[in-house]
Amino acid sequence: MDQAGNVLCDKCQRIQIDDRVLSDYIRRLPDGSKYSDKTGKSEEILVPIASWTDYPPELPKLQESHVKTGCIFCKYLREAILLSKVEFQGSPIHIDLSHNWFNDAIFLGKGDITRDCNYSGIVGHVTDGEAKYGIYFSPASDDFQISQLLGIYSTPKPMALCEENVSWATNLLENLDHTSAAQDPDHGVLPTRLLDIGETGTLNPRLVSTSKETVPISYCALSYCWGPLPQLTTTKSTFQQYSLQGIPFQELTKVFKDAIEVCHTFGIRYLWIDSLCIIQDDPSDWERETTMMHQVYRNSYFTICALSSDSTHVSFLQRNQHRLELNFISSLDPAISGKFTLEFQGFSREDALPTLYRVELFFNEWSTRGWTFQEDEMSKRALYFTKSQLFFRTGDQYFTEDGWSSTSFRPTLRTSPTLENWYGKMLGFRKKKFANAQDVFPSLSGIVREYIRYHGDTYVAGHWKSDFLRGLLWHSVTYGLEEGRETLLRNLSFPRQYIAPSWSYLSRTEPGEHGINFHQIHQRREGHFRSMVESADAWTTPAGQDPYGRILGGTARIRGKVITCPSDLSKIHDDIFRTSDIFQIRVDGAYAATCQLDWPVNGDWESSQDLSLLFLASTCHRWQDGRPTTHYLGKQGNKDESGGSESSSNDRSGRSDSSQVGESTQGEHGGSEQQPFAIEESTGSLELLSIKEPVASEIENKENEGISRCCESGCAGSSPQLTGDKTDSDLSSSETSHELCPVCGHCMKCCTSEVNRHAWGLIIHPALEPGKYFRVGVFTSRSDGPGSNCGTRLFDQADHQEIDII
């Protein structure tokens, strides 16, 4: 039993906070009050509490403990797990909890925080057979002495729109710097229609046109989950009624009524809701309005984000907080005593401790929906309604009602429209869900327009001209998928709904089903990326008027070196790669390349039948992360059932490693309905994020594809040329270093014309249409592999061919 009468069983006694871990960090203010300062303390401390074993779904052992002892934490823990609605597959489950101190992994970043959170709360794991979930309970206290001593935040209010919260949010809104907004070229652009909700009361909202407005109008935009159909929408048949008589207030869903209440509370008369301000059964209106949505959210006074509602029928203003109040007496200073609360934040989706503070901002149904991605990215200001408290964001700065603030380490694409940020955002976007999978590109259309406005780049099916070859080097997350090679090829040939060409990372049937990753080549871990193709062109055929919306088809035409896959693919068992299988390709029994396929493989090998390697680019030979990037290259192939090596020079396909893919059918693309871009020949070095324009000498000189522009201009004399059978190891250390060339500024490796480099490219498979191919994987051939036929040398004998990938 704790000090003030709250009953805890013997096992749960350690749920009480022992603040002696702060003994080296206690400081005094001038008024004599104590606070903890963890400056310089970076080590995270976990203090074990207890472990439990119980049986889902009812968790009878926790129930029994509560009944027998009256333990309030056994009851609370059981309720928290039941409220999570996780469908456990095994029995029993194991629960391990610990106090977490000095955790620096506070949600949005390190350092830029209004106060340190020294006591981070209770974290742990719930293990269900082989599955493991993170579980987290956040601390809070309205007692200033306790809050200051432990470095925790105040307890969120029981009502979202209470007087204190409204005053807090209003103060933030009124004290923002609006200078940048006034400089926005789209500043003041209004949506085509708005809902006039009146200034107070329950007036029937009425659709109004903004075309004749001559004075500035402030409005809010709503970002929410539609949930199960049918929904309240504006259609051709209801448009006139909603414009003249208005929408009967009683017909509005709870989320729409809540949004109106928020607007009234902050003195905003107009509201934009997509389902009501867009005529949903008018394709031309829908397409036109969705292309403007980035402006709608960017120009709203603030965006109302209903994170705690998983459908329009669930209120986001009602708080059903699940908290446990406990007593606290400081072991360091018994005069400091009072109460603090723990609040269950849910299960994390990662197989790791849920050390992310403010998890309620991420782990909700709203964050999984596809359309909310653009709505959040494009909003200058947003008010997030979670189950426990309010978050406010302006730009990339976050604030919460309990007194915390931080700058995001993942800035929005609106504030940071860089390629690096684009790729990072696409990793998360690819996992989001759509009621209609064909909405993938329309939901990105506004972000694309914003990006083009900053960079003037050319876009096609998720890719950018300035980084097209590198952008092609993504790979599928295949762990957990059941479809095999035949299913993938069938889906690519006869998709249920066409979304994108196979070379686009947005193509793998439907978002939410297949994750993707980008190779380390996107993470600046590879040196001096260089195009190795003679030309590359790509285009799509739009399904409507929006060039960045839904598409009917797409082609990437690349002229580069191609070889048939020289051996069957042998699986490498390595715990470093956790998202997809890694395979090795061999020539004469020695390493030639590693690859990742776009389908999962049961067993230790995959046939190379109909697979070819398309060589796209090369990078420098270098070490990464303190170890060679080729740490797995020396691994032997898995053994087959007969006990022999699974991969050898006489592979299962029976083909020689010098066979070539036949010339593809030639054809011209064109027409006003297509959206092309082309990358002209460039065998010179690439800037980090863009392909340099070719020079005449590059186009004329095809004798050595590995020579960089600087070598052709004459500075290669500063680095010896490799001739005969010389390899990288024959060069002196200065010649193989990445020191800069004094003539051209490139590294010495790039200025050595015939140095073997790492090779990167696509695995392709013939499509049903003659001369066309599907992209079905990626490969890397490391120049420092143990085989002699690896790196760029793997393609020495190959001819250039024009390949159409669809």
From TrEMBL:
Extent of the signal sequence: none
InterPro entries, per the entry: HET (IPR010730)
Region (Disordered): 627-675
Compositionally skewed regions (Polar residues) per UniProt: 660-675
Protein name: Heterokaryon incompatibility domain-containing protein
Native source organism of the sequence: Clonostachys byssicola
Pfam families documented for this protein: HET (PF06985)
PANTHER family named in the record: DOMAIN PROTEIN, PUTATIVE-RELATED, HETEROKARYON INCOMPATIBILITY DOMAIN-CONTAINING PROTEIN
Biased segments, Low complexity type: 644-659
Domain Heterokaryon incompatibility: 219-375
